[in-house]
């Protein structure tokens, strides 16, 4: 081998190594801070970059993506002097790699301590119940303070979430009892409200049913009354169209008298005052028929007497025989009607008293 070849190979290797050290490839969403002789020069962006070997060096590398930091549970005292352990989750992103590298020594520790301090200030002004129910308010307060402070560090706090709030065991037990009592109270209230609604609906249904039944009874009564009115009107029209006289009406009235004595409980019979009028009408009717029958016989007797004497038609003085026969017929009809009434009364008495013998009626003996 030529003695000059080896030094050339060594020189070539050194040059290649220097060239490779001058090339820096930065991945996407990454940032490298370059220092030259210990002084910040620039920040390398993602892609192919060149530096001066031996002069420039990469001081710090940062991930520009959003990152999550979960802190340890921190004891915090509330306004009502209760110690609770609060665990927070922090979402942040590096926006300026230079400030994150040179403005704060350890930005993770700084953010953690700032979160704890701000959290104690916020929780210290709240009681336990408000702390448990105001997570959104606490998150907003934390984010506002952290974002304002970490802005000069080149870090942007996107969101702060409270992962857990752990009160002391005694408080947990008291809270569980209170929650159980509240649930029992709500259950009793809901049960009572359900019974109340059920009774109200039942009463409303009964009311509607009573109203409907009353309306139905009213309509039925109206229809029955209309039917009776139409029946009476038709009977009235039939009587007047057929020109019924007092004789027919009195006769129909007498026909209904036997129906009054029917029945097992009819032990007392009251004869209305209109009964005498009906008897008179029937009596006059029978008297008129008897007079009509007696008139031809009287006229015949008069003709015979006049023929025997030869003096023409006989002149009858004194009382009129026609009138006497008419009165006699009326009297007979009245007696017959009274006897029928007396018989009906006796039948009613016998049926009501259930006796084996009754006193004889004086009119029957006569």
Protein model, in words:
This protein starts with a helix and ends with a helix. Residues 308-327 and 354-366 have low confidence and may be disordered. Helix content is 61%, strand content 17%. The protein is rod-shaped, with a radius of gyration of 66 Å. The strands form three sheets. Strands 6, 7, 8 and 9 form a four-stranded antiparallel sheet that branches. The longest helix has 73 residues, at 169-241. It is an alpha+beta fold. Helix 7 (246-255) crosses helix 9. It is built from eleven helices and nine strands. The chain has helices at residues 5-21, 97-102, 107-123, 128-133, 135-150, 169-241, 246-255, 257-260, 274-309, 321-353, 362-365; strands at 23-26, 30-36, 39-44, 47-50, 56-63, 67-70, 74-77, 83-94, 155-166. It folds into four domains: 5-63, no CATH class; 67-167, Tetrahydropterin Synthase, Chain A; 169-243; 251-312 and 320-365, no CATH class.
